[in-house]
Design a protein that fits this description.
alpha/beta, Rossmann fold, eight-stranded mixed sheet
């Protein structure tokens, strides 16, 4: 399945049409991006994941139900964004339940950091959106602080924005089972 759906760094033309393009960073086992691609065949989707079992899970779904509007990178998100995603090419970016790195000494490892957010803003088209969800209150507060200080984004809507999350992710289910509140954020390019 990799030859059909897998992308290498600096892949040339990914899709043979002009359509809205969504990127999911860290798609886990692929349930969300697969469901979105299936529900919106008129849009295109790219997923980035470094966790090989997650990539295999998504490719297995695609083997059983082939989709022409979904492609996958098995690389680090920063590397893909630097080498393969042109500026102002994405309509949406999804980052759903990234690793919260809950220990204070590990907070510097969190994906949502000012420099990374600034980098993402360059990849989004004017009026593009960034959707982030977490079940860790401390991380939600961190996200709020980082985004509040961003010159590139404005809060479009926070809480209860579930358009991109038409299914409950594995990490969302786990968070709910642990009694965690779910924090949904949607940010728009200024």
């Amino acid at each position: 399945m990799w030859p059909k759906y897998g992308l290498e760094l600096a892949s040339d033309k990914i899709f043979d049409r002009k359509a809205k393009l969504t990127l999911e960073i860290g798609f886990g086992n692929g349930e969300t991006i697969f469901s979105l691609a299936e529900k919106y065949p008129d849009q295109d989707f790219i997923g980035i994941e470094v966790y090989k079992p997650g990539i295999i899970s998504l490719l297995a779904m695609l083997k059983n139900n082939p989709l022409d509007n979904l492609r996958v990178y098995g690389e680090d998100a920063v590397t893909v964004l630097e080498k393969s995603i042109p500026d102002e090419s994405l309509d949406k970016i999804l980052i759903l339940f990234p690793d919260p790195w809950p220990k204070k000494r590990h907070h510097k490892r969190r994906l949502i950091q000012p420099k990374f957010i600034e980098f993402l803003a360059k990849k989004l088209k004017p009026k593009g959106f960034l959707h982030i969800a977490t079940d860790w209150e401390n991380y939600a507060n961190h996200i709020t602080e980082v985004m509040k200080n961003s010159d590139d984004f404005t809060i479009y809507k926070s809480q209860s924005f579930n358009q991109e999350r038409i299914i409950t992710t594995k990490f969302e289910k786990r968070g709910k089972k642990l009694g965690h509140q779910i924090f949904d954020f949607k940010f728009a390019i200024k």
